[in-house]
Every structure is written in structure tokens, then in C-alpha cells.
Design goal:
22 helices, alpha+beta, single chain, 42% helix
Length: 667
């Protein structure tokens, strides 16, 4: 090299001054042209560079979270699952681990690490393609925030330029914080908090050294180094990060060796969606109000769900449906069902199970399925009768009755489930035994349209067809609306609209909405109590007798439709109302004799037994307008001022003919 230099000097010395001037002129011209070309290329590549916005104004996509009533996380909505946390909540181990493996000179370089760039460039030249980034944390942040993830010279120039601009505006801690909240760690986790929760089920500030090292090794290749997918590769990568931390002076050799022996994380056994039908119900409701912000805005959604009650509901429904399948050996066409539980005082939805398996069918049968309720609709008919002068002890003749049919010359005659008629019966007995003929005569007397009006008052929103068969539940409605309507009886005439969301806030706690129970009196307290008294009779001596096993005051009603296509039980205590529906989506028969009492009531009993086992028994409190009388050892409620006992009422009917008897003649 020295000889060559001497030869060049000798040649230069022997050149004439003119030739020297020419060579110098040519050399500077070459430099000028080269510089111009490089400058032009630089300007060309930087011509469409994005404007650097304030990082304080940058809002990355954040996960929205759904919480149960007791504050437990039950699900998340996101495009990128992320929770932004402040720099102070990131432990030193985590900061040092990411710097050791990604950018050891982070706190000393101006945004570009020249030695690193040279090493990467040399590797690229040898490979004849771009294989190494050589990017600093700041450059990686530039790429994540402002550039497309392409490998090109143009992008590298832009990346470097943006990194220098970021370094001028923001402190190193601010840059590192943005990076750790932005970078992808695999398994759907964006940002360090989501990663910490995903892999270790803990908050970032609780991370240990070994956990920090494992997470720091993920951004380079999240799938390749995933402890869930490739635990051995992940372990080796963790060891590499720990060695780098030793090399950079962040930890000692002894600390590294100890951390390297820690066990690897294993995939969580259960997903977050602990109440999938309810969560999807919430998602649709929130999307209607907040649009795309549900997935990117970091909302905190506090719901009415009682997770313990929800789990009980899921188990009860699953057990009941399996029993039906076993009875009819229908394992390959399994029957469907739904259960909803509501606090009648607030309208809070405490549990919602829309089917036997959300992952097989997302159709939510608590509010999307319109089904005939059968005799479960009868309380609305009897309510209308009581509101219009009838009493529970009035007599109606249970006998055949004929009405004009849908076609000329044809008649329709309601049949009782037993096929028999009993003659004179009280409304109390007609309800307990679910006598169809009496219900149809009642609705004919009080008016179909009037009955529809009362049902709407209680919260039935579905279209009710104004036909006499409505008394037998011929119009479709949803489980949630009929269950909520029964809650009006439980709360002495006060309606509380069903409610699922209590409050919505942003991640800083700013309240977007806060909901309170909406209540209104829709029927008189004493009338509501009389209906409850009638529905207690269903349990004590009627079609719902199996519910006596609960050993506490309960009221409810069975419902069964033609050909056993729908089975219902809606029932309540003073503090909880629950509804169960069983059937097939395509309206096939559940099976012979699968009534509401056989198919739906056992599910309801199992659910209520577990839900109420730690709650003291509570009786329904009669309002001022009600008097409780005892006759032949049995209690019944009557309106204050009613002087007739049941026996006197029957005698009066015999003497006076038909004081409240409904005309049986054909029309």
C-alpha cells in the first residue's frame, strides 16, 4: 500500500501544472455531480415522507374491555389488542432487556446507530439483498407509526430521516415508552401490557427478570419465538436476551443463570369470553352506539352480568338439554335451549345463555328467536280479567265452546291438554291447571285488543296477533321480553326495562355514558300481587309442582305449544326472575310429552336452586289492598273489601245463575 502511494505521488509530481489543474477540476466536477445525484435521489425518496405529528396526539388502537358487575374482566374487543401504560409502570428489567437485544446504544446515539448500520450494510452486500435491519428502537418506532413494512432502500432512507426528527422532539424515555406500547409481541398482543397479560396473566409492573427477557425476545420474530408455539426456541431466545443483558452490564452472570432456569409459560386453558352470548349481545349494542371506537378506543364497559350466576345458568341449561337428548337418543340432532335471568327490581340482566354452544351457533335465542309461548302467555289474559273486575275466585265454566273458524262454515274449539272438561272452576284453579278453554273464554270476554294493551304495558314488544288463540300463546315473542314482563308481577306492578350496560368510560376514566334503572308503575300493586298468588298456585298445586323442591316461595308458569315444539317455564322469587325455553330452531317436535313442566322446568329448578342457595328465603309482601285469608289450611289472597269466601262464591253462582259466567254458546 505504501509503495502504491509513493508511485501515485511520483506520477503526480511529474505532471504539468495544466494537467494537474485538469485532473483537480475533473475530480471536483465528479464530486459535484455525485453529490447532486445523491441529493436528488434523497429528495426523491423523501418527497412523500409523512409529516411528523406530535407523539402526544398519537392514539394507537387500544383494546376495549367488558367487565362483569363485580368488576371481573369477561371479554375484550379489539383490532389490535393493546392497553397503553405509562413509562413508570414498566419495570427496569423490561426496559433493559429490550434495549440489550434491540438497541444497546439507545441512550447515546442520535436516532441512528452508525456502527450498527455499517454491520447491517456489510451483511446485505454479502447476501446481495436486504437481510438485516440494523435499526435502532427509534427507527423501528418510525416504521411502525409512519411507514409500510416493506424492505427497500427508499423506506430505509425515510425511516432514518423520521428517526432523526423524532429524536429532536422527544426524550429517550418518551421514545422507549411509545415503542414498548406499540410493538407486536405475538399471540394477538400489541404493546407490553397486552403481552404481559397474554403470556403471564399479570400486569407489566409485576414482571420478573426471566419474564422480561422472554418478552424482549419476541418482537424480532413473534411466531418463531412464541413460547406457546415453539417453547424450545423461545427458551433459547430468552437465554440469548439474558446473555446480552450480561454483556451490556444490566445484570450479573449469576442473575442470568438463575433466570434461565425459570419455567416457560404455557397457553391459558380458558379464553376470556366467559359469557359469549352475553358478550356478543353487548358488542352489538355498543357498536350501534360507538361504531368502530368499540374496537380501537380503549373503552371500559361495565355490565350487569353476575359471573357466578352466569356460570350456574350455563351448567343448568347444558345438563337439562343433555337429559332431553338422552331421553330421545338425539345426540346427532341435539335440542336447543336458552335461559335468561333478570333482577326484577333493576332490570339488570344477571345471566344470558342463548344456546347450548356459542361456537357452533351464535344465534342468541334469548332475544333473537321469536317463538310461541303457549300457556306461558296466560298470565297476561288473567291480568286483563283482574284489571277489569274479575277476582281469582270467580267461576268460569270449563266446557266446550265453539268460535267461527278461519274459513267459512268452519269452527274452532279450544281443547284442554287433558282432553277433559271440569265444569265450574275458579280462575285460581284454571291458572294452576292451565285450562285452555277457560283462558279463551276469558280473553273473549275482556277483549283481545285489551289483553294486547296490557301485555304491551308490561314490556311485550313483539307483534301480537289479535285472535282468540292469543290466550293460548299463538303469537311469537322472545324469551327476554316475556321474562322481563313476569318481573312486573314480582315487583308489584313496577316495570324495570331490561338493562345490560351500567357504565362506559375511556381508559382515563372519563364517563361516556352511565345508565340507571328505568322504572314505572304499569299495573296496580294489588293486581300484580293477585297474579303472583295465582302463579304460586301453579307451583303449589298445578303444572309447576316440581318447583316445590326449592322450599321457598316461588311463582311461575309452564308453557307448551302444539306437537311439543316449544317448552317454557318462566318463574320468579321477589329478587330474581328467570325464563327457560327449549326447542329446535327448525320447529321440530322436542319429543313426545316434552311439556314445559318436563323439558324446561327442571332447567329452571337447577338454576334457581344454585343461584339462591346462599340467599335467605323471602316471601312476597302483599300490598295494602290485599288481604290473606286461610281456608281449609290453604292461604289465598283477595282484594280488600271482598267479603265472599270461595264456598260462598260457588253458592252464589248456583243461586243467581251465572254472575260472572261466560257465554258458552257458539258465535
Amino acid at each position: 500500500m505504501s509503495n502504491l502511494f509513493l508511485i501515485v505521488l511520483k506520477i503526480w509530481y511529474n505532471l504539468s501544472e495544466v494537467k494537474k489543474s485538469y485532473i483537480l477540476l475533473s475530480f471536483f466536477a465528479f464530486l459535484s455531480i455525485t453529490f447532486g445525484v445523491l441529493a436528488g435521489l434523497g429528495l426523491f425518496h423523501l418527497s412523500d415522507i409523512p409529516k411528523i405529528q406530535s407523539l402526544e396526539e398519537y392514539h394507537p388502537y387500544e383494546t376495549s374491555r367488558v367487565y362483569s358487575k363485580d368488576g371481573e374482566l369477561i371479554s375484550e374487543f379489539y383490532i389490535e389488542r393493546r392497553t397503553v401504560i405509562p413509562f413508570s409502570e414498566i419495570p427496569k428489567y423490561m426496559k433493559n432487556a429490550i434495549l440489550a437485544v434491540e438497541d444497546a446504544r439507545f441512550y447515546s446515539h442520535p436516532g441512528l446507530d452508525i456502527p450498527g448500520v455499517i454491520r447491517a450494510l456489510w451483511a446485505d452486500i454479502k447476501a446481495r439483498e436486504i437481510i438485516q435491519g440494523g435499526s435502532t428502537v427509534t427507527q423501528q418506532l418510525s416504521k411502525m407509526l409512519f411507514l409500510k413494512p416493506e424492505k427497500s432502500l427508499s423506506r430505509k432512507i425515510k425511516e432514518a430521516f423520521i428517526a432523526l426528527q423524532i429524536e429532536k422532539k422527544y426524550s429517550k424515555d418518551e421514545i422507549l415508552n411509545q415503542y414498548l406500547n406499540q410493538v407486536y409481541f405475538g399471540s394477538g398482543a400489541y404493546g407490553i401490557e397486552a403481552a404481559s397479560q397474554t403470556y403471564f396473566g399479570k400486569k407489566t409492573n409485576d414482571l420478573t427478570l426471566s419474564e422480561s427477557a422472554l418478552l424482549a425476545g419476541l418482537p424480532k420474530a413473534p411466531t418463531t419465538f412464541s413460547p406457546f408455539r415453539n417453547p424450545e426456541k423461545s427458551r433459547l431466545r430468552r437465554s440469548h436476551v439474558l446473555r446480552r443483558m450480561v454483556d451490556t452490564g444490566y445484570i450479573t452472570e449469576k442473575e442470568s443463570e438463575k433466570a434461565a432456569k425459570d419455567p416457560m409459560p404455557v397457553p391459558p386453558k380458558l379464553g376470556l369470553n366467559k359469557a359469549p352470548y352475553f358478550v356478543e349481545f353487548i358488542r352489538q349494542e355498543m357498536e350501534g352506539r360507538y361504531g368502530r371506537n368499540v374496537y380501537i378506543g380503549g373503552l371500559n364497559i361495565y355490565t350487569t352480568l353476575d359471573l357466578k350466576v352466569q356460570e350456574i345458568a350455563e351448567k343448568a341449561l347444558s345438563k337439562g338439554l343433555r337429559s332431553i337428548d338422552d331421553r330421545h337418543k338425539k345426540r346427532n340432532t341435539p335440542v336447543q335451549g336458552a335461559l335468561i335471568a333478570i333482577d326484577p327490581g333493576t332490570g339488570y340482566i344477571k345471566a344470558m345463555v342463548g344456546g347450548r354452544d356459542f361456537y357452533e351457533s351464535q344465534f342468541n335465542r334469548t332475544y333473537q328467536a321469536l317463538r310461541q309461548p303457549g300457556s306461558a302467555f296466560k298470565p297476561f289474559v288473567f291480568l286483563t280479567a283482574l284489571e277489569n273486575g274479575f277476582t281469582p275466585d270467580d267461576i268460569v265454566i270449563d266446557s266446550p265452546v265453539f268460535y267461527p273458524g278461519s274459513k267459512k262454515g268452519m269452527t274452532w274449539s279450544p281443547m284442554n291438554f287433558s282432553g277433559n272438561f271440569q265444569g265450574p272452576v275458579t280462575l285460581r284453579k284454571a291458572m294452576a291447571e292451565s285450562i285452555n278453554a277457560v283462558a279463551v273464554k276469558l280473553i273473549d270476554k275482556v277483549g283481545v285488543n285489551t289483553t294486547v294493551e296490557y301485555a304491551k304495558k308490561l314490556g311485550i314488544k313483539s307483534d301480537l296477533k289479535p285472535y282468540l288463540s292469543l290466550a293460548l300463546g299463538s303469537s311469537d315473542l322472545t324469551l327476554i321480553e316475556i321474562t322481563s314482563a313476569y318481573g312486573v308481577f314480582a315487583k308489584l306492578g313496577i316495570k324495570s326495562s331490561p338493562m345490560a350496560v351500567i357504565k362506559v368510560t375511556d381508559r382515563m376514566g372519563k364517563v361516556f355514558e352511565e345508565n340507571f334503572p328505568f322504572t314505572e308503575e304499569v299495573i296496580k300493586p294489588e293486581i300484580a300481587y293477585l297474579i303472583t298468588d295465582l302463579l304460586r298456585g301453579v307451583v303449589e298445586q298445578g303444572t309447576g309442582w316440581k318447583a316445590k323442591v326449592l322450599g321457598r316461595p316461588v311463582a311461575g308458569k309452564t308453557g307448551t305449544t302444539n306437537e311439543y315444539t316449544d317448552a317454557w317455564f318462566i318463574g320468579y322469587t321477589p329478587t330474581l326472575v328467570a325464563g327457560v325455553w327449549v326447542g329446535y330452531d327448525d320447529h321440530r317436535s322436542i319429543g313426545s310429552k316434552e311439556t314445559g313442566a318436563r323439558a324446561a322446568l327442571p332447567v329452571w329448578i337447577d338454576f334457581m336452586k344454585e343461584s339462591l342457595k346462599d340467599i335467605p328465603s323471602e316471601d312476597f309482601t302483599p300490598p295494602e289492598g290485599i288481604v290473606i285469608v286461610t281456608e281449609q289450611g290453604k292461604k289465598r289472597a283477595i282484594l280488600r273489601g271482598t267479603s265472599l269466601t270461595r264456598s260462598e262464591s260457588i253458592n252464589l253462582l248456583e243461586e243467581m245463575g251465572s254472575a260472572k259466567k261466560i257465554d258458552e254458546a257458539p258465535r
